[in-house]
Structures are given as C-alpha cells and as structure tokens.
Amino acid sequence: MNDAPFEQNRNRLHEGECEMHDSNQNENQTEQSESSVAKTQKLPPGVPDLIAPENEAEFLAGQEKVLEMIDANAPLSEVLTNLVLLMEAQSPEMLCSVLLLSDDGDHIRHGAAPSLPEQYVKAIDGAPIGPRKGSCGTAMWRGKPVIVTDIQSDPLWEEYRDLASASDLGACWSTPILSGKGKVLGSFAMYYRQPRAPTGVEARLTEVATRLAGKAIEQRAAGERL
C-alpha cells in the first residue's frame, strides 16, 4: 500500500503551525477605535499538556478528512460545517462558527454555524463589519483577534446584546481568517453560554480552524476565477 498520500496530508496538517500572520487593514482606524472600546487581544498561548485533544489520533483524522474534502472540491458549506463540528467535538461547551467576508469587503456572510440558534445566524448574515460590530464583525474590521469574555457588558456588543441574550450566548472570541497574503477572508469564532475567559486550550484549535478554513475559502475563490 502506498503511504505517500497519507504522509503528504499529515505534513500539510502541520504546515504553517507556527506561522505568524498580520494585517494592516484599517490600521489607523483601529488605533483610534481601540482607545474607546475593548482592546484587541490574543488568545493565551496553549500549554503543551493541555492543548492536545483527548484523542489526538481522532483529531488528526478529522483534519485529514477536511483536507480531502478541500482537494475533492466539495461545496464550501460542507467543508466548513465539517470543520466546525470537528472543533466543537474537542470541547462540549463550545459553539463555533465560520463567517465569510463579503465580496465588497464590508459585510458578514454566513459560512457555517451548525450549533448556533437559527435566529442568531439569520440576524447576523449580511450585517456590516465595523469597530463595534460584535466579536466577529470587529475582528474582520480590525484584522486581529477579538476576545469578549462577557457579551452583556462589552461595548463591542451594544448593537447585538439583546440578540445574544435571546440566543443564550455569554462569551465570544473571534479570530480573522487570513489568506496567504494576509487578506481578511472571514472569521472563526468560539461561543460559550456563560461569561468566561480563554484557558489556553483554544489557541491550537483556533490555529487549525483558521488555517484549514483559509485553504478552503481560497480554493473556492480560485475555482471561481477559472
């Protein structure tokens, strides 16, 4: 049996594991806005003995499945849904989503959020990004991670506070999905029912999710250009 394809996928799973991305999108506006609202924050670095999922082999197999779907040109919604479910499986209390940045660069488009309430998903689909547009809209606007530990008290969620309360969402941190050239493509978010802060477990999951989502989104875009 030829193990080359399997090894190639394993190598690709870890490709860019330590790669650092940055984005200068709206840099001047970001500096001004952050003086009056919640600061951009990075997820705490993962601790080696904490970030590994309970079943590492299963987690890696799930990543390989997503890569295979990308290579097979599966519909983007299916790829992203499988990716989100893989991340959620690592933490039962966590609800995840992938949002896409619209072609005009100004609005949120639905990607995948299989566990979030339908009313919430519909309400934010098509919403504008900006300096006070929840965790995801703000993260895409800043081009940097945004951590909100208490939705009901954070100024970034002022417009969406009632929606979040009705959807039973208490905390949300969002990280932009970037292209290989640092362009914002969308965002990956983790939600919790109760207010809470990241523990360090989330850093690795976020790195994997944003990297694979970025591959899928860029491949879809490349196919549309053909």
Description:
The longest helix is centred in the last third of the chain and has 24 residues, at 202-225. Helices cover 42% and strands 14% of the residues. The relative contact order is 0.17. The protein has 226 residues and is of the alpha+beta class. Helix 4 (56-71) packs antiparallel against helix 5, helix 4 packs parallel to helix 9 (202-225) and helix 5 (76-88) packs antiparallel against helix 9. It has 9 helices and 5 strands. It has one domain: GAF domain (Beta-Lactamase), CATH 3.30.450.40. The protein has helices spanning 4-13, 27-33, 48-51, 56-71, 76-88, 118-124, 134-142, 161-166, 202-225, and strands at 95-101, 108-112, 146-148, 171-178, 184-192. The termini are far apart. The chain has a 5-stranded antiparallel sheet.
Please provide the count of β strands. Answer: 5
Percent range for β-strand residues? 5-15%
CATH class categorisation: Alpha Beta
Strands in their spatial order, largest beta sheet: 2-1-5-4-3
